[in-house]
């Protein structure tokens, strides 16, 4: 059966643990794995901008002895020149796996449903599974096993958060989410359907950050959102600054998937401060994605 990674909820706890374990082994001894994906090809379709996801997949695949090819969606006529099924079956004759960054989550699910080759979600308007698998790795590397830790999300209800919610349900960590009342109202059906005692919502960032082990944030306007200045106003009290960090545990870490809007969701002093692990977080994308590639291509 063709495996895909579209959402964290596609994975079992055992599979997540297997991916994180191999990522650790690769990080500890990269040369041992230099031929792991020899003669394998990863195709990459980025319909939206990306620095970290694009480069960490590209370099990560090559460091495992594999090859990559960036495919221009328009150049191959995806969605316009022939049926989705014919183009996916065509790609599968040449490449072993395909990572797609595309606003439209439904479209990526539809392409995966063709089952022609393994497909990885490299960020949609709905979720960012690679980011959160890798962030789990970074959290465990910095503060130990994630289960029973309290992760605090200060910000929008967006693609990255949805993957974090799915991870919380599987891995069993507590998640405190702070977002403005208007945003909570807008997403009330999503919130109602979560039904996990470990996941709680607040309209007060201080309550969410209190005694947290990890404070996480992201941009206020995400991929696929309509640009809105109103959001800046709505989120003005939800900035992660030194004062807010002080409510978390003294050994708490700060995380941001990047790119950041410095001075909006986070201050320079926090993102560049001692508690920030953002560069470690950026680096770890590569090891976890190398492990995801092995899981999808070779097992
Ligand atoms: N965090 C992340 O996915 O970064 P890019 O958008 O640069 O890929
Ligand atoms: N939520 C952000 C994540 C970027 C990696 C966005 O969608 O723009």
Give the DSSP E fraction (strand runs of 2 or more residues): 5-15%
Helix content: 40-55%
Total count of helical runs of at least 4 residues: 14
Can you name the CATH architecture of the largest domain?
A: 3-Layer(aba) Sandwich
The tally of beta strands, per DSSP, is 9
What attributes characterize this protein structure?
single chain, 299 residues, alpha/beta, Rossmann fold, 2 domains, five-stranded parallel β-sheet, four-stranded parallel β-sheet, binds phosphoric acid mono(formamide)ester, binds norvaline
Question: Would you summarize the structure shown here?
Answer:
The chain has 14 helices and 9 strands.
What do these coordinates show?
The model has no long low-confidence stretch (mean pLDDT 97). The chain has 14 helices and nine strands. The N and C termini lie close together (10 Å). The strands form two sheets. A five-stranded parallel β-sheet has the order 7-6-5-8-9. The protein has a four-stranded parallel β-sheet with strand order 2-1-3-4, with helices on both faces. The protein has two domains: 8-127 and 282-298, Rossmann fold, CATH 3.40.50.1370; 129-279, Aspartate/ornithine carbamoyltransferase (Rossmann fold). The protein is globular and about 55 Å long. The chain is of the alpha/beta class. Norvaline (NVA) is lined by residues 123, 158-160, 218-219, 222-223, 257.
């Amino acid at each position: 059966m063709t495996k895909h990674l579209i959402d964290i909820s596609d994975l079992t706890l055992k599979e997540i643990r297997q991916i994180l374990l191999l990522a650790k082994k690769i990080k500890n001894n990269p040369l041992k794995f230099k031929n792991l994906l020899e003669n394998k090809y990863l195709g990459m379709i980025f319909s939206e901008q990306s620095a970290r996801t694009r480069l960490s997949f590209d370099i990560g695949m090559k460091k495992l002895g594999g090859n990559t090819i960036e495919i221009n969606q328009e150049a191959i006529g995806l969605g316009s020149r022939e049926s989705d099924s014919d183009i996916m079956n065509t790609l599968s004759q040449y490449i072993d796996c395909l990572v797609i960054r595309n606003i439209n989550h439904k479209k990526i699910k539809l392409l995966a449903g063709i089952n022609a080759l393994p497909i990885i979600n490299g960020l949609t308007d709905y979720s960012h599974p690679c980011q959160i698998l890798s962030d789990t790795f970074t959290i465990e590397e910095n503060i130990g096993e994630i289960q029973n830790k309290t992760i605090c999300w200060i910000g929008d209800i967006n693609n990255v958060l949805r993957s974090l919610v799915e991870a919380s349900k599987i891995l069993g960590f507590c998640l405190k989410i702070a977002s403005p009342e208007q945003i909570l109202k807008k997403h009330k059906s999503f919130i109602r359907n979560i039904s996990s005692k470990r996941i709680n919502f607040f309209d007060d960032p201080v309550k969410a950050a209190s005694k947290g082990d990890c404070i996480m944030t992201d941009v206020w306007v995400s991929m696929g959102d309509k640009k809105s200045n109103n959001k800046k106003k709505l989120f003005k009290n939800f900035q992660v600054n030194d004062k807010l960090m002080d409510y978390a545990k003294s050994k708490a870490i700060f995380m941001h998937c990047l790119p950041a809007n410095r001075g909006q969701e986070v201050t320079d002093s926090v993102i560049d401060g001692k508690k920030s692990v953002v560069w470690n977080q950026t680096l770890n994308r590569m090891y976890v994605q190398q492990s995801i590639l092995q899981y999808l291509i070779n097992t």
